[in-house]
Structures are given as C-alpha cells and as structure tokens.
Amino acid sequence: MHGMNDTGAATLASEIEQRLRTAGMDLDDPRARWAEAVSVERYAMLVRTASWQELWPTDEGGERAVPVTAELWTAAIQAALDEHPVVRLPYRPQPYYIDAPLILHSGNRLYLDEGTEIRLKPGTNTCMARNEHVVSGQRGPVSVGVEADERIVITGGIWSTLATSHAQSNGNHRGRVDQQDSAPGAHGTILLHNVRNVLASDLTIRMCRPFGVQVGNCCEFCVQNIRYEDHRRDGVHVEGPAQWGIVRQLAGVTGDDMVALNAWDWRDYSVTFGPIHHVLVEGIWGCAMPEHTTGENPYVPDGTAEIRLLAGTKRFADGSSVDCDITDCVFRDIHNVRTCKMYDQPNIGEPDTDYADPIGKMVRLFFRDVHIGRATPEPTFQVAANIRGMSVRDVYLGFDPDADPAHPYKLIGVGPMSATYTFGQADPARWVELFSPDEDCTVEDLHVAGVQARPEGEGEWRAVEPQQLVQVISQTPNPDYPHTTPRGGTGKGQLLHPVFGE
Fold this sequence. Notes:
Layout: H1 6-22, E1 38-39, E2 48-57, E3 63-72, H2 74-83, E4 86-89, E5 96-98, E6 102-104, E7 109-112, E8 117-120, E9 129-131, E10 149-155, E11 158-160, E12 188-206, E13 211-229, E14 236-252, E15 257-262, E16 276-285, E17 305-310, E18 312-315, E19 321-324, E20 326-335, E21 337-342, E22 361-372, E23 381-383, E24 386-397, E25 412-414, E26 420-421, E27 432-433, E28 441-453, E29 462-463, E30 470-472, E31 493-496, E32 499-500
C-alpha cells in the first residue's frame, strides 16, 4: 500500500504530535503553570480522620489485617479543584487518602509533588480521579468532542487503589465513575472520558486493580511517562471513539495489556465504543527502562507486557451499530512485549449477545523498532482481524528463531484462533471459545522487513529472512472435542499481496 514505508510512518507520527502541539498541549512541560498552583493545605480544615482496616500480604504468603487511622483529604482536594484552576498536593510522608473520585473540571490542573502518594480508602470501589462530564455510550454511539471537558492535566504522584496482592483488592475491585456506577464500563484508576486536550503525565501506578489510565470518547490526548509497580490490570486503556493521541514512555510490569487500543470492547469494560485513529504509541518497555534498573524495588524484566488492538462492530439493544475500526496508528520503540494481540474476542460472560458482528477492520498500521527478548510458542503478532496495510520493520530478536526446528519461531500469525475456556466446569455446554475460530480474516498489503537476530552470547546481528517468520493459519474442527480441547473451527486466514524485504 502506498506510504507503508519508513517515511510514511515518520510522517504520520509527526503529524499526530504536531496536532497536539498546535492544540496548545504542554507535552514537554506538563507543569508549565506550577507557579499558579494553590496548595491543598489551604483547605486542611475540610480534612477528617477515620479508621479502617487494610489487608496486606505476609512473608509467609498469607494476609494480615492492618488497623489504619488516617486523614481523608477528599473534600479538601475537591474544594480546591472547584475554586482554583491549578491545584498542588505538596509532599507529605503520609499518603493522601481519598474516599471518592476527585472530579476535575475544564481547565483544571492537578499537580502532585515528587514522592507524593495518594490512596483510595478500602471499599470505595471507584476511580480515583476523573473529569466532570463522563457520557455513557452503552445504549448507542456517541460523538467525540461534543460538550467535552477540556484542558485537563494530571501530573505526578504515586496512585494506589490498594490491590496489595494479586488476590487482594481491599474492596476496590472496579474503577467506577461514582458509587452509583452511573457510567457502566468505567474501570480506570484515572478516568478521562468525553474529553478534549487532556494530559496525564509522570505518574506511578502502584498496586491498582482497575486500568491505570482509561481514556475514551476523546480527541487530542496524551498519556506519558508512566511507571507501573505491582499493577494488576491494563496500563493505558484507550477506547473508541478516540482520535489524535499519544501514549509513550511506559515502563514496569502490568497484570494485563500495557497498552490497549480497544475500539470495540466488552460492554462491562468500556464506557463507549467507536473508531480509533491517529494514535502514536512509543517507548513501551515491558521491563525496566535502563535508567530505572537499580534500587530496592527495581522493575521485574519479565517480558510479559502485551499490546492489544481490538476492532469490531458494536451492536446495541435498539438495533443500531457503530463501526469500531482502528486506522492510521504508529507503534515504535517497543521492548519486551510478549504479544501484540490483534484478534477478535467475544465477551466470555455474554458470548451469545456481546460479540463483534462483523469482526474488526484495521487500516494503515506501522510497527517500528521492535525488540523481542525471548521466543514464544505462539506468534508475537497474533492477527485475526481484517487489515489493509500493515508494516512491520526493524525487528530485533534476542534469540535464534530456528533454535527449535520442529517449532520454529513465528513473528506474525495470520488467521483465526481457538482456545476453549471451561470456567472450571465439567459440562461442555457451559464452555465458550475465547476467540472466534469460525471467522475468516484477510490481511492485505503486509510489509515485513529489517528483521535481525542476535542470540544471547553472540556479538553480531544477523539478518533473518522475514518470509519464514510469517504463518497463515486455518482452523479445523477437533474431532475429539469435548474430550480434548480446544474445539477448533472452520475459519481461515488469508494473506494478500505481502512484501518481504526492502
């Protein structure tokens, strides 16, 4: 496809960044109005003290209940945001506890000093900060940018919903918009929805069960310089409609996708649905960034980060629908991402009513400077969607892709997938497929070039023939199902007009 080269990727990335700069976003200096900030200490008379218990893990693998008596700063911070455009939380050795979402209005900027920690009181079960006018899209399509909250900045600080272990959330299971769950599908620690010109920057997301930052129904947005410590869910979760955005410089360990562009999604995990276009994702580290590898709690280089692109067609109860396509996106400077998930995935809780019909479409996707540390049994790029124009180049493999001749490594797999989820039930009638093994998919104009490998211990990079790293997949029914799984299917992948090499 025309423009699917390095120049096309660079031009598109530059176009996206220039759009945000033209909109006046302080990408380089998110604290540009620091001098105007009003300290929340001026509202200390609104602080109240309360007592509760928090559950924390023990060294033996159990849990212990810790009695806590602490100050609740919700009312103080909210009053400051209501009365002043720029608010600062100065450093204090104790966390700022809150027991309701902080609501930012158009023009609000919330600055947290370095090392300042803000925690969600156990049992609150909402997001920690959000914009004022979140609009639900559960009943039908929404229009991006209409009566949106604008010019909001959240920067700095350590944010925690107190998910102190993989099994423990301290009652903060969901990132709801409010106690009434008035916008179903909200699931963010920081929720920016129905917004224009918003920036979340220089945050540490620590022990959170909801998504780190959930942003959607948005135009001109940037999420940058985020560190994840013992995080339990998606890092940055973008949902449609969304356009003209940047997600960059993310590092650490997340319990799910480090970046998700979910134009289509399950209705219980998305506020709105719609197309996503013109998004730049760069500087993604599925382990520690080089300058963050020392100290008592370095990031674990587990290489389990994932990127998700989920397109589809959302159909609503009244019969209306919206195409949830993903177009014109650039992904570059990607490190230790185990999987780039570009498949169809019906809602396992409602497989008969909440699924994409038809499956997703994506156009003009660029992947550049991709570093893969270890071989995986499944392809790194798992593609089971209809794509027209996908370019993958400058890929660096830290292993020998031919080390196991019986199961050679594949960079890209094109075709439907089958995986049977049993819910731990013995009755096959209750089992569901995680993917859509009966759906055909076509990838047209795939370009793969510049793949190199350097196994551990070797000094020189060597070129790898890209065609050998691409696999076309077709499903067949499993004749032994349900005695063995997965079920299999009838769907077929198709690859049209691929280009391998320069």
